[in-house]
Amino acid sequence: QVQLVQSGGGLVQPGGSLRLSCAVSGQSINALGIDWYRQGPGKRREWVGFITVVGHTDYEESVKGRFTISRDIAKNTVYLQINNMKHEDTAVYYCMNGINWGQGTQVTVSS
User: Fold this and answer.
1) Nearest to 102 by CA among 31, 23, 40, 32
2) pLDDT per residue over 12-22, tens digit each?
């Protein structure tokens, strides 16, 4: 059974940074891609980026340059680094492997 367990959310000031983690069990991240989504208050869930099985990444246009997805194969974990955070980054962030979703982690940007 594949499980995605997230961690790393919290409260951050505008301009700050945060790294979210998505630890995968039951399947190697070498064999699957991981997408990141977010859902802001009162908004629909939106895609923010992905990392492929070979480590290629792509991002939604509005977050390019601030969001970076990476992975640690030894830890079977995928990361989402968010820099220069803005109020509009406030959301619940989710990772998913095309089938399974992480539980979500709250990120709040506030001064």
Assistant:
1) 23
2) 999 999 999 99
Q: How far is CA 72 from CA 21, 55, 76, in A?
A: 10, 10, 6
User: What is the token pair recorded at 96?
Assistant: 């998913």
| Rounded alpha-carbon distances, angstroms, from residue 13 to 39, 79, 88, 100, 111 | 19, 20, 12, 31, 5
Query: Tokens 């977050």 map to which residue?
Result: 63
- pLDDT at residue 95 tops 90: yes
Instruction: Kindly report, residue by residue over 32-66, the tens digit of the pLDDT.
Output: 899 999 999 999 999 999 999 999 999 999 999 99
Residues 6+ apart with CB under 8 A from 44: none
Task: Give the DSSP letter string of 23-91.
Answer: EEESS-GGG--EEEEEE-TTS--EEEEEE-TTS-EEE-GGGTTTEEEEEETTTTEEEEEE-S--GGG-E
